[in-house]
Amino acid sequence: MLSAESVPSPARPCGAASGRSLRRLRVALGTWVAIEATAESEATAACAIEAAFAAVSEVERRMHPEREGSDTARINSAPLHVQTRIHASTWEVLSLAQRLNGLTDGVFDPCLPLRPGRLSDLELSGTSRALERWVVRRAPLALDLGGIAKGYAIDCAIAALRAAGCNVGAVNAGGDLRLFGARRETILVRYRDHGYQPLALQNAALAVSDLDEPRRPPGHRGYYVRTGVAGAWRRYAAVLAPDAMIADALTKCVLLCSEERAGRPVAAVGARDVTDARAARIAKARCLTEHPAGAPPENQ
Fold first, then answer.
1. What pTM did the predictor assign?
2. Which of 83, 96, 205, 211 is nearest to 145 (CA)?
3. 10-24, 64-78, 110-124: which range is least confident on average?
4. Are the CB atoms for 123 and 134 separated by under 8 Å?
């Protein structure tokens, strides 16, 4: 995750919708999660935020690799060649992971090298419309969805805000950000020469990753380095995408793949690599980055 220092923005958020706005900050997903909602009433916004945090907790419960009973833990411990039922949300995340695995010739692989199995050793049931979704392990593997599930949790929180009647909202989980509605924010991309490049964000998601960030949350398991790579091609990555799951996953593709290979998945899903070769940090404008005392350093 890249540093998320607050930097004065040259442009204030514009296009904000009328209504009552609330913001709440809590610990989840191994980091601080900030959720902001605008609705016709304060009560509606408050209920929406609670629903959004509940959605985040559900993703964490199902996909944490070491939580007893989670889909990920059950997959890792399941007998070989036996179907293991999974939730539709886990199926959706694994489906994108398999697609990116193919587009990057196996470089994007959420199976840690602790065991010999790779994502290609995991068979996934065929259609998202199936009543039952399942996976089959063909080899011992250590699946860890940490590099993609956080983005999916952000998307689930956004869906919960919308379903609860909010017309504008934002979710920031450890620096990865998604906005919806009329709200627009200016993100400042900082370079080594201390210059800045403004980046407008509206109805989109931005994810960032920094391999050299010394203050990453302890729950982060590292980055996927498997087939065809000896190490990262870049040290920093920033990706704009329609949703946070795609943006989150693509930062790993950008970090680990050559520019040509990374360009395939970025183009295939309608995203945009906004990493500059000189970029050292992403400094976010005042958008859910003003944390209270006690917030961990990586979120200050």
1. 0.83
2. 96
3. 10-24
4. no
Domain ranges of the chain: 20-64+148-299, 71-146
Superfamily (CATH H level) for 20-64+148-299? ApbE-like domains (3.10.520.10)
**Mean of pLDDT values over 2-24:** 53
Phi, psi at 97, each rounded to 5°: -60, -45
pLDDT in tens, 251-297: 999 988 888 899 999 999 999 998 865 443 333 433 444 444 444 33
Spatial contact of 219 and 146, defined as CB atoms under 8 Å apart = yes
Query: DSSP string of the chain?
Result: ---------SS--BSPPSSEEEEEEEEETTEEEEEEEEESSHHHHHHHHHHHHHHHHHHHHHH-TTSTT-HHHHHHHSPTTSEEEE-HHHHHHHHHHHHHHHHTTT----EETTSS--GGGEEE-S-TT-SSEEEEESS--EE--HHHHHHHHHHHHHHHHHHTT-SEEEEEETTEEEEESS-BEEEEEEETTS-EEEEEESSSEEEEEETT-TT--TT-------TT-SS-S-SEEEEEESSHHHHHHHHHHHHHS-HHHHHHHHHHTT-EE---TTEEEEE--SSS--PPTT--GGG-
Residues 81-132: pLDDT tens digits? 999 999 999 999 999 999 999 999 999 999 988 899 999 999 999 776 667 8
